[in-house]
Design goal:
homodimer, about 400 residues, alpha+beta, S-adenosylmethionine decarboxylase, 9-stranded antiparallel sheet, 8 helices, 17 strands, globular, disordered N terminus
Chain lengths: ~400, ~400
């Protein structure tokens, strides 16, 4: 999982790289020790689907095909749960979710997510006959951009690959967006619409919380000298992860000497949350993502609980949602709170900034950055050296 | 006003330049004839001010000093009106407004706005003893970025100068933002806070409409073989500009063979609107900016009227406002419409996208892009050749 090229990332000098140069220098000075990039790269792809049970859609992609695609991304499957409407995979780096009409792949570290994209689309479209509808690539600004490899070394190269691949599969109108300050916490999106469809009322959304600077008492819960289902389940229990959403069935793994991942399925067989924890002090990070459809009150409470588990020094919250979800969260009285709205976390966190982008037809995306009101003074009770992780052969 | 370097703009290859390459190629193919870049670069600077009448603040900057600063930007003053709380200047390229506590400079074409910044700040701070509070630089994506000169040839170079100058005057935390798609209609902002002040309830805002693809019957109103106050006043009258805001006193100039600028003062002596028109078919553009404080209904009606004067094929609307303005526009019932909200122009225009950025404390900025619902089929009744403009010596 660790790979530290001695040279900087490939690709041309660039505006955004230039603007980030100062930021990088700072991060390099702070981190003389090895670091792990918890920040995930994420691809979400929607396919046209008949809605008929017999039509497997993207779930027809075989395990061996996924192994091949993920090998290109330089990660592997370590756990698989087949749910009613969803295949949920834990990867050596993050997670993969496959529904009939949707694929979500998240990979962290220095994986090469975009390296598997063409093979995936080629198989889905040309071999399985699936029809592409929408492709969305996103990621937060990296903690350690200088350690990223291949096209992930620069936004320019990422966008170049996305533009080329999307064009080859029929969409020449994709575009890139940077939400937030170029030289600070920001979120990158690539959006490509392969078909003009009315996606207003699918009630489709995705909420992602990216948490940094976890305190010692939280980090220490995700260290263990052995990796097994029992150890991982203990971590889910003791950390409070099991209590984030009532009735969630948590499939968890842990890494040695530290690290944790889980996919949790909710009772409808298509809702999930997924958590990935990088507990090393020098690069502590935890992410929580969910697609659960619920009221504004329950969603805000879910966010509060997820944040309460990890007590981050700062976090970013992204929300990509169709108009149906926005209306549902607003409620009949139009008073429901959207996840990114100022003030949701006022007691413990202060919102630093909010960016929103609304597309013409159906979706909006937002990212908010928060910082903890508590003064952070870590008490150094946990080993601070980030060392290579291994997953037990049990998985 | 025209300057067409045979080589591309200076500066390093860059992400955003790379991402725009395709767009540029398109625009170059479309425009073999000379073009004028109507899109303004804009600087807004707030100073600490005592509020006392005897304290001139930034209005103490002399005419000869402005001549010197504007010469660095490569433009000149062609008209000046001293109002109660505001000096309003029409420039050879756009406008300059000076209040005790605020300066707004807009320059279009291939002017070098940032080239005058250091001299301006040096004079204001070190010679007049003014205290900087906030500096904001913004511009829409250029129609013809390949013709921009100096640092305006790349976002990277613009940001580099802004970062350096702001740092030298005490602010190292400035940041750049791109609102909208990197390879499409977007708006660039640089924001630097020199002081942490509560600017929530100054009722300060700025609304800017940048209109493209004006129809022939609109463009033809801004052509004339002679330039004079009488001709310009006729243009203000016949185009409907005089009727945009009741009671506005319009100070207008025109250029030969075409082009028009005005500053209009409203009755409180500090509110204004300003309009700049580039009527050539190959690059038609008009901008309308106002700082008028009014109800949501009146503001939306003002926008409607400004858009109705120019009937653009597409336009972008930006709004930078403090929380006081937002609350005032929302009204007591919280139902007031903000200028950028979807649906304001539903009859004639379709909103393509909206980007919003909310800062932690006090301000929010937004940009929305609209396209006309009418099918555009220009009937070629007006000369399409853009030729050098001159301002009559009368001004």
């Amino acid at each position: 999982m660790y790979d530290f090229p001695t040279q900087g990332p490939p690709g041309m000098a660039s505006d955004i790289k230039q603007l980030m140069r100062e930021e990088r220098r700072d991060s390099q000075e702070d981190s003389q020790e090895p670091t792990f990039e918890g920040t995930e790269k994420r691809i979400e792809i929607d396919f046209v689907w008949s809605g008929e049970k017999a039509d497997l859609g993207a779930r027809a992609i075989s395990r061996s095909m996924w192994d091949k695609i993920l090998a290109l991304c330089e990660c592997t499957i370590v756990s698989h749960k087949a749910l009613k409407r969803l295949d949920a995979y834990i990867l050596s780096e993050s997670s993969l979710f496959v529904c009939a009409d949707k694929i979500i792949i998240k990979t962290c570290g220095t994986t090469l997510l975009l390296q598997g994209l063409r093979t995936l689309l080629d198989h889905a479209v040309n071999e399985l006959g699936l029809e592409l509808e929408w492709l969305f690539y996103s990621r937060k600004s990296f903690l350690f951009p200088e350690f990223q490899r291949g096209v992930h070394g620069s936004l320019e190269d990422e966008v170049s690959v996305l533009r080329e691949v999307c064009k080859d599969f029929g969409c020449s109108t994709g575009n890139a967006y940077v939400l937030g300050p170029l030289n600070g916490d920001h979120w990158i999106m690539w959006n490509a619409d392969f078909k003009e469809v009315d996606s207003n009322y699918r009630y489709d959304h995705n909420l992602d919380i990216m948490m940094y600077d976890l305190p010692d008492d939280v980090r220490s819960k995700f260290f263990s000298s052995s990796a097994s289902g029992t150890v991982a389940d203990g971590m889910s229990e003791e950390s409070g992860i099991c209590d984030i959403y009532p009735g969630a069935v948590v499939d968890a793994i842990n890494f040695t000497p530290c690290g944790y991942s889980c996919n949790a399925s909710l009772d409808d067989g298509e809702s999930f949350f997924t958590i990935h924890v990088t507990p090393e002090e020098s690069c502590s990070y935890a992410s929580f993502e969910t697609n659960v459809r619920c009221s504004s009150e329950i969603l805000v409470e879910t966010i509060r609980r997820a944040v309460a588990v990890f007590k981050p020094g700062r976090f970013s919250l992204t929300h990509v949602a169709d108009n149906g979800i926005i209306k549902e969260l607003r409620g009949k009285d139009n008073l429901g709170i959207l996840p990114y709205e100022h003030g949701v976390f006022d007691t413990d966190y202060k919102v630093k900034a909010t960016s929103t982008y609304r597309w013409e037809l159906d979706y909006q995306a937002s990212v908010s950055s928060y910082v903890s009101r508590r003064s952070l003074s870590p008490s150094k009770t946990v080993s601070t050296i980030a060392s290579p992780r291994t997953v037990s052969s049990e998985y």
